[in-house]
Structures are given as C-alpha cells and as structure tokens.
Amino acid sequence: MQVTRKETVYEMPGNQPKVGDKAADFRLKSLEDKEYTLTDFLGKPTIISVVPDIVTRVCALQTKRFNQEASQLDDINFVTISNNTKEEQAQWCGQEGVDMIMFHDPANTFGEAYQIMIPDFGHFARAIFVLDREGVIQHVEIVPEISHEPDYQAAIDAAKANL
Questions:
Q1: What CATH number does the domain containing 97 carry?
Q2: Which three-class secondary structure string do you get for the chain?
C-alpha cells in the first residue's frame, strides 16, 4: 500500500488489517509503565488512533480530538500509539494536558503486527482501527496523505455502532 506525505510517495510493505479481521495482539506499555495487551480492551469497542509523530501539528490535533471524545464516551476505549519514545510522549502530554492511554512503540512491535510502519519515512502511517467487543476490526482508515487528519466521526460512529 502507498501513502503520501506532501506529494512524496511512501510504500508501506505487507498486508494491512481489513474490516472483519481479528485484531492482532500487541504488548505495549503506557506512560505509567503499565503493560497492556489486546485482551485488556475486550468487552468494549476500542478506537486505536495511530499517529506518526506526537510532536507534530496534525498528530497533536488527532490526539487531542480523541482525548476530548474519550472524556465524553465512557463505553468506548480510546488509545493512541506512536513510535515516539516514552519521554517524548510524556513531555507532550504534560504540555498539552492530555490524559488518555498513550502507548510508545519505538521498537515497532505494533507497527510490525499491523503492517503500518513506513521504513523510508521512519514512522507509522496515520491510521485508525476500530475494534468491536471481541477484538474484530470494524473500521479501518489508513489516511492516504499523512499530513491530513483522519475522519474522526466515521471512527466514532463505528465504535458507537458496536456498543
């Protein structure tokens, strides 16, 4: 699959997850060093927001928007994943007042499992995965132009449809 960033084309190798696929398991740590796996999110719909670099404008907008939604929708899990370091994420969250589950994945384990790492770019593609209560993917958006925001409402509607 190809995505662009300001007219530069990047190849994302592998097969990205599709609607109807069972979500791949992952093991990631939050900013509080609590380890999570996919199993921790079963029982509620989950929105997984993937951002290339938390300290950039569009990634910040995406994360703040889902943080705002998370504060209003208790029946939906929200998580954000980037391949930034824990320190970069912690500094950004502290400055921005964001209080949601943030996973740092500098080792690219989530990126490998979901095939969203762009080797020539060195970051993840911008993506949204919505899982149902059983961990089956109900919505996927891999944003074709990395510098654009995702369709927030489509992700929220997909999660709400699985309450």
A1: 3.40.30.10
A2: CEEEECCEEEECCCCCCCCCCECCCCEEEECCCCEEEHHHHCCCCEEEEECCCCCCHHHHHHHHHHHHHHHHCCCCEEEEEECCCHHHHHHHHHHHCCCCEEEECCCCHHHHHHCCEECCCCEECCEEEEECCCCEEEEEEECCECCCCCCHHHHHHHHHCCC
